[in-house]
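Lecture 7 notes: from sequence to structure.
We start with the chain below.
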Amino acid sequence: MKPDSELKTDVSAELAWDPAVDATAIDVAVNEGRVTVSGHVAMLSETQAVERAVRRVYGVRAIELRLDVKLAPWQQRTDQEIALAVDAVLAWVSGVPTQDIRATVKRGYIHLSGEVDWDYQRKAVQAQLRPLVGVLGIRNGITLKHRLTPADLVSRIEGALERQARRAARHIEVSVDTGTVTLRGLAQSWQERDAIVGAAWAAPGVCCVVDEVQVGSQPAP
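Predicted structure tokens for the same chain:
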């Protein structure tokens, strides 16, 4: 495993290298491969760029973001202005039943509620709203509509893991309890971990995924 001091140097260098990130107000701490990033960013969308940069660094086992959005004066907007922008965005999002989604804005924070059919729709709404100027944060309270859980849900998910992350699939334990899927095990990379979690969310009848997959070295087959 890469030493924490070396990992901290690599993460800091990657943040400084990324043109989408202003690393001047960002601090990095590392403990046993777990990276904590704290400080300020200029806009909400930059937090996602920070996370992407950290995930690119080899040896990162876990990530915690403790970033606040500190808007420049010319980027500040009233709640009413943000609410109007949110309504306009939701009216143009395709593939998502936005008529079932409600959004309120309070002190720069967008609060989302309502129901959609799939997790990707819930994430799509948040992704469209994140770049809006003046937004300090998004609290995504959108839930998934209740669907019947197939009796063979575990085998369906395991089949998807074999197709999408075959190398990692043998190290993942899948359990299901009334629509809640729990994933445990090891993935060798963040890309494998994303494939594993995504496969679980794509299964019919899933309303919650408990992600306990760790990123680290795999035991030899």
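Points to note: The chain has a mean pLDDT of 92. Residues 160 and 166 are 9 Å apart (CA to CA).
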